[in-house]
Every structure is written in C-alpha cells, then in structure tokens.
Here is the input.
Amino acid sequence: MGLQVNNSLKILFNELVDRARLSDVEKQLWHSLIEKSSDNELDAIFTAVQDDPENLIFLTSNLLKKQKALKAGNKRTWSAVVAEEKKFLEKK
Amino acid sequence: MTSERLRHVEGQDFEASEEEYGDREISAEHLETLGEFVDEEVEALTDHDEATKKPASRSFRRRALLGITVLALAMLSPEVARAQQKLEPSEQEGIELQIKQLQDKLYESKKVEYAEAEKQRHQELNEWLSLFAVDGLSVGEAKNRVRMPGEQVGVYLKKDGMETHLGDMYAEDGIRIMQADFVREVAEMLKGAGIEAAPDISTELSKEAGFEIDIDLETYALLKDWGWRFEGGILNTGKKEFRFDDQTESITIFIGGETSLDEDIIIIHCLDKDGKKTVVKFTEGRQLGMKEYK
Here is the structure.
C-alpha cells in the first residue's frame, strides 16, 4: 500500500476547500484557519469533509453561526445551531 | 491557536456579526454562558445508544462538529484580547484559562468519541483477521505512526506468550483501510513471518444463474492468493456472497459486511449460456461498469 507522506493534512484540506462549493470569502476563511490551526484541531473536521465533501458546506455555515452565537452569548441562537447539528447527524 | 494568530481570521469575517451584536467584550457572565453552550452541545451530540453500531460517517460528523466549536471558541480571541486590556493581569489569566478549559472539555468529548469508534473498528478488523484462522492474530495501534490523515493500524501475533509486531498499514484514501487492502496486506505480513495462511473465504458458487466466469490471469492470481478457487470456470468466493442479478445481468461481489474490491484489480469476464460475453469492473464493492462484447 503506497504511503504518501508528503500529503500532509493541511495540504489535502486546502485542496478540498479549493474544490468546495463555497464563496471566495469562505474559502479564504478556511485557508486561514487551516494555516493557523494544529493538525489536532483540524483532523476530525478534515476526516468528515474527506468522507463527504458536501459536509464542508454545512460545517462552514455551522462555524459562522456558532461564532456569532458565542460572541453574542445568545442562548436561543445556540440552541437552534445544536438542533441543526442533530439533524445533520441523522443524515444518511 | 493563540489570540494573535486569530486576529487575521477574525478580521475577514464577520463584519455582519459586529453590526448585529455590537462590539461586545467577554465578561465573567459571558464565559459562564459559553460554558453552558458547550455543555448543551456535548450533551446533545453524545451518543447514548452505544449498543447500536453506528455508521462511521456519523461518528466523523459528530467529532467534526465538536472540532468546529473549538475553532469558533478560538475565534473569540479578539474579544478576549479587548476585555483583557481593561483587567488586572491576574484577571486576564482567568479569562484565557476559562476559554482553554472549554476547549479542553470539547477535546475530552472528542477523545471519548474516538475511543468508542476505534473500539468498534478494531472489532471489525479482528473479524476480518479471523478469515485467516491464525490463533493470536490481532489488530492494535500502529507501531510506526506517520503524520498523515487516515486510519493507521498495526497487526500483532501473540504466540507462546510473546507478542510480535507483524507490520503496520495505512489507509490509501486518507480515511479508512478497505477490506481487500487489509486482507492482502495481512497475507503479505504473514508470509513475511513465515506463516502460510490464506483467508478462508471459499465455498461453492451456484452455476444456476447460467453464468460461467472467465477471468484474466492477473485477477486469477490475486484471487487465488486470497484462497478463492476456480473450478470448471466457476469462481468460488466464499460465504455465498457472490451475487448475480438476473434483471440487470450484473454481478456483485461481497467479501464481508462492507464490500471492498479495487477497481484496478477486479475485472471479471463473464460468459453467459447464450455465448454473450460481458466485462464487469468493480470498485470498492460497487459495480463500476459493465461492457458487453462479442
């Protein structure tokens, strides 16, 4: 089985982001996050995106909503985000 | 992720959120709310039905969502920095510590998820190992882990109280090791260890479907290595998981709960009772294409 040591998580993740159906601003955000985060912070997200690239669309929206809810300390918004997550988990 | 590193990221976004929520600062009360948020999410995403085997993709998604929260918390750094400017040094440390504790809590939750998923996966891999009928064979942590995404497992053999590491294997697709690759790698490891063992996946294939199988030499050699037999043009695969569909005139091969045969190694030439020949290609257990020729 070929071992591709050069394909680090960050390179592969950036490639997935480039191919994703996201806006340029969203792609730029991900590229920044990928650059500034550790592999440990990114591995679970990367695996889900590699499993199904469409997951990145939901996760991007999820990130932005969470960021807003956390910043505002808005409980109602946060609960709505969590409810969406439960539906996302039920997805086939 | 440090506050400094995140300033750039935060700057790109999210003017909308600034407008909507104003230039808020992180307060002790706010931090308490964030703690409640994290608890709510961890509780909501925790799988309370551990007895049921869940698809791997669901587990991937659950861990990813917790990972997103870690990033979202890190993106609060500018607010934390602003708040800290007005605080005494001891209070500044308190805020940073609390944010870190929230992130650690999420990491811990992810770890539990990982551990459960890994336990289930090892059970599955050990079932595949049982095809070889070699006592003491088991999977575990890869001895030589590499810094790359995807599954990494080690294969071990316990004999006379001594455990030997036979080798490690890594997911080619960066996610999971497929069964065909796993079986092939284990066969090679066992061969390297001087143990002759082929996976026990041979039973009779019924000829009732009216098809005979003619197979190219390369595939023949590969499948023969796996212990499959070819008698009178009939492929005996084992576990009666070689299925012919009369309606679609297609053939599907299963070698376990999850089918996994590589596109580039499985090309089966079928000759039906009327003399029609068909080439069937498989990839990861799914029929990739079927082409008829005369």
